[in-house]
Specification:
Jelly Rolls; 7-stranded antiparallel β-sheet; 5% helix; mainly beta; single chain; 572 residues; 38 strands; 6 helices
Length: 572
């Protein structure tokens, strides 16, 4: 049998035979994909049991989101005092740097490089390698520095392995923040191969929740405004806090005035705001921000923007020019190359512009809210969801997609009921259901479902399956019960994985991490007409006591049964 390491996405392995997948093949010797919180030695048991490179060569890789500066260790192993290797962050004149060093038989070796922003909050990737002749350090896939060295390397004591701590024993310098996709390889990867590591190729290091760079925030489904909305999603996103940026939203206003559309930052200063204005009764769009006490704005006439009916608005700044768009058309621009400061992401609001001005909340509906950490070109803005439709009222989910929620959210109760109940869910089939999950508890937790209580519903849930875990798709239609349950080893354990289920009106299928786990023929009834019973994190309607506990993201429902190859191509 063979196993192919899926470097691009997770620490899962694609088994090319039906027997149980064994350990990953060289050069990957350690992989922990799931996100975890740092402040002490983590993953010690995993690392000490793996085939770590104790004499070189090696590549060390991790994605980090720091919450504190200092000299925090990222990863290391070996013995305390001598014969170890350590990768850590350093202040480097306040801008941040990366420091790889080791001690072998009393000889100290190091390479330190400047890496601006590495100690700041926000996800980024760091990597270090040694091919027995050259030491290299990378940030976000870019080579930051190198030096020649062909001497000793000795880190034989694997029991000293720690993620979140660098040099063994220096637990007082533990990394503070979050970490994910920790990988150790027993080979020095080429520069091009480092670029291909999970998120290293992203322009800003952002590749979270299946958002394709430069997209850093996306809320596709329609929601009602009238107050601050999507605060938790936005405050957890990698918003552009110093520019450049593009802000996009589709809106359907129900009242005029000066309503805010989207904004973030601090109240009074250091914020950005996009809002609508009356503009002599015809309507206009107003982008403004305040940075370190300096006020900047661009207001343009946009006839009809405050009237009811769907239209798209967008605003961008590339650090030299501010632009505003309506329905994909450039409405106005002005030059500006000064300051932008919107660091406080906790002030994020959809439906409110300037932080604190909740009395000017947008009234109406909103959907397809997107924020990019890049100023899109005029042509690219035209390509945004409905920007070229002149205000088409159709939700802009590309067929066969009828429901999508990309951003990560915490489960333990029914979630996103209003989004799902308003979507064009497949109520009679066919369908594909897809989600990425990170469980924190076992049991029989529901993942997603809709329909009526007791009869005429569909449900996807997890099951213990002899302690190894399984996936269970079942429905009841006009009193008839239908089900398919498959073994899916590890699905109930912590760590991100994807699950999917489909029915093409003749065959039911279940997948895990893009692999078909089982199928069975069925061509009878399916009835899940009551969309008001929709729940993410709960499967069968009404069984809220079996709610999924953990995180979920990239939830997608299609009104078509995707092919096996199409399921493999889904986000993660």
């Amino acid at each position: 049998m063979q196993c192919e390491v899926k470097q691009r996405t997770t620490n899962k392995f694609n088994c090319l035979a039906t027997t149980k997948c064994q350990k990953p093949t060289s050069p990957l010797v350690f992989s922990h994909a799931g996100e975890f919180q740092c402040n002490k030695c983590m993953q010690n048991a995993e690392g000490s049991k793996s085939a770590l490179p104790t004499t070189g060569p090696f590549t060390i890789y991790a994605e980090i989101n720091p919450t504190a500066g200092g000299h925090p260790g990222v990863i290391g192993w070996g013995s305390s005092g001598d014969n170890f290797v350590s990768l850590r962050l350093i202040p480097w004149h306040g801008n941040g740097g990366i420091h790889l060093y080791w001690k072998a038989n009393g000889q100290f070796v190091e390479l330190a490089v400047q890496a601006d922003g590495v100690i700041n909050s926000g996800w980024k990737s760091i990597a270090a390698s040694w091919d027995k002749s050259t030491i290299k350090i990378y940030m976000n896939g870019k080579l930051m520095g190198s030096k020649g060295y062909s001497g000793a390397f000795n880190a034989v004591d694997k029991s000293g392995f720690c993620a979140c701590v660098g040099e063994p024993g220096r637990t007082h310098e533990a990394f503070q923040g979050k970490m994910r996709h920790v990988q150790v390889l027993n080979r020095a990867l080429a520069d091009s191969a480092v670029k291909d590591l999970p998120m290293a190729h992203a322009a800003s290091g952002v590749k979270e929740a299946g958002l394709t760079p430069p997209l850093v925030f996306s809320h596709v489904n329609k929601f009602q405004c009238g107050k601050c909305m999507q605060n938790s999603e936005g405050s957890n996103a990698d918003l552009p806090t110093t520019g450049p940026f593009t802000i996009f939203a589709e809106i359907n206003p129900s009242a005029g005035g000066h309503p805010g559309v989207i904004g973030w930052g601090s109240s009074g200063d250091n914020f950005v705001s996009l809002r609508l204005i009356p503009w002599r009764g015809n309507g206009g769009i107003h982008l403004y921000w305040k940075a370190n006490g300096h006020f900047v704005e661009l207001a343009v006439q946009a006839d009809g923007v405050i009237n009811s009916g769907w239209k798209s608005i967008a605003a961008s700044w590339d650090k030299s020019t501010i632009k505003i768009y309506m329905n994909g058309k450039l409405m106005g621009s002005k030059g500006y190359s000064g300051a932008f400061n919107a660091v406080d992401k906790s002030g994020f609001c959809a439906c409110v512009g300037e932080p604190g001005r909740t009395h000017e909340a947008f009234n109406g509906e909103m959907r397809n809210v997107q924020i990019m950490d890049k100023a899109l070109s005029d042509t690219a803005v035209k390509g945004l969801p409905m920007a070229d439709s002149g205000g088409s009222s159709a939700p802009q989910l590309k067929a066969p997609l009828v429901y999508k929620h990309a951003n990560s959210f915490q489960c333990n109760k029914c979630m996103h009921n209003s989004e799902g109940s308003k979507a064009d869910l497949p109520t009679t089939g066919p369908f594909t259901i897809f989600a990425e999950i990170n469980p924190s508890a076992g049991g029989h937790p529901g993942v997603i479902g809709w329909g009526s209580q007791g009869d005429n519903f569909v449900s996807v849930r997890l099951i213990p399956w002899h302690g190894n875990g399984g996936i269970h798709l079942y429905w009841k239609a006009n009193g008839q019960f239908v089900e398919l349950a498959v073994q899916a080893d590890g699905v109930i354990k912590s760590g991100w994985k994807s699950i999917a289920a489909s029915w093409d009106k003749s065959t039911i299928k279940i997948y895990m991490n893009g692999k078909l786990m089982g199928s069975k023929g069925y061509s009878g009834a399916f009835n899940a007409v009551d969309k008001s019973g929709f729940c993410a994190c709960v499967g069968e309607p009404g069984r809220t006591h079996e709610a999924f506990n953990g995180e979920m993201r990239n939830l997608e429902i299609m009104n078509k049964a995707l092919s096996d190859n199409e399921v493999k191509a889904l986000p993660m």
